[in-house]
Amino acid sequence: MRRTALLGPLLALALALPGCTGMDDFLSNTFSPTNDPNKPIGDSLNMLRVQGIAASAEPVTPQAGDVWPRGVDRMPTLQDIEPDRSSSPR
Q: How many CA atoms lie within 13 A of 88 on its CB side?
């Protein structure tokens, strides 16, 4: 009795899972993870690490010289531009 009580819901679940994709797509994606069509493609450093392949990265080294950009020029204030406006005719 117990075996059939567990077998019924398990069978219903197995039949309901591939309902939208079809049994062939469901089984091929489930039982062969190497042929997964949804597997991400790439050869970046992170992808190699995730796949378990040994990946070496070059260490970050400091650059010589001044690497910071030049600051923004000083913007004129209203006090700076007011004399120019008062001398010009309207």
A: 6
**Does the reported pTM lie above 0.90?**
no
Q: Would you say residue 74 lies in a domain? A: no
The tally of domains found in the chain comes to 1
> Considering the domain boundaries, does residue 66 fall inside one?
no
The string of pLDDT tens digits covering residues 37-57 is 777 888 899 998 888 889 888
What is the C-alpha to C-alpha distance for residues 36 and 25, in angstroms, rounded to an integer?
10
pLDDT of 23 > 70? The answer is no
For residue 84, tell me if it sits in a domain.
no
Q: Which of 15, 21, 49 is nearest to 37 (CA)?
A: 21
CA-based max dimension of the chain: 104
